[in-house]
């Protein structure tokens, strides 16, 4: 292999780290990692794996599920079959937090329906002064969530994981009137709606669909917000563009104020628009 001095230095550092960790096949593991991330030793095998990956993509398997990672807000997140792949659309939440949210240091943030942790971890990266907890119920998604929290902690990104079912009224009762900000990208597609195969066939259905009108879990989260938000606390939720008026009405019925819907075309793509609705619990 023709490696640079920087690459040799990184490999030597990796060898020392692996040895200290106690892995039982140090050199085999190191060789595999070098082959995967730095330079492929067997070009023929690399080409074969490339064509297999292309065939999977032609079968409409999501790219993140094929390569096992997705880049979100400058963070490399681990994903795979059985977990929702975060989309750029969710960055609209972080734009709002940086430009408009009034969050004091130490404020408590819950990322509900967290999946692999993209939204919550990005908040924790951008605002390390906040106390972020990512809440997920599905056991497969929780494994990816924990893994991403652990791997990004070495970069100083700190967040907590909580496995809980938000459909259970008591699941988050210990947060009653303690949360300053709830963010969520819940499933919001109506059950009968047809989607691209990547989403309709190859994503876990519970992460995409939510009842006949797509609002089942959104209603649950809005109700939960009344229980756990502090006075003046914020609720920020992603949803479909055609659901905007219905979501605003649900916010109004639950006495939220300062309600607005944001549609960010810069973060939208062929899979849909980047849309969120914001509301605030009154004083």
From TrEMBL:
Highest taxon listed in the record's lineage: Bacteria
GO molecular function annotation: nucleic acid binding; protein methyltransferase activity
UniProtKB keywords: Methyltransferase, S-adenosyl-L-methionine, Transferase
Keyword Methyltransferase appears in the UniProt entry: yes
A Gene Ontology BP annotation from the UniProt entry: methylation
PANTHER family assigned to the protein according to its UniProt record, in alphabetical order: HEMK METHYLTRANSFERASE, MTRF1L RELEASE FACTOR GLUTAMINE METHYLTRANSFERASE
Protein name as catalogued: Peptide chain release factor N(5)-glutamine methyltransferase
Organism for this UniProt entry: Pseudomonas arsenicoxydans
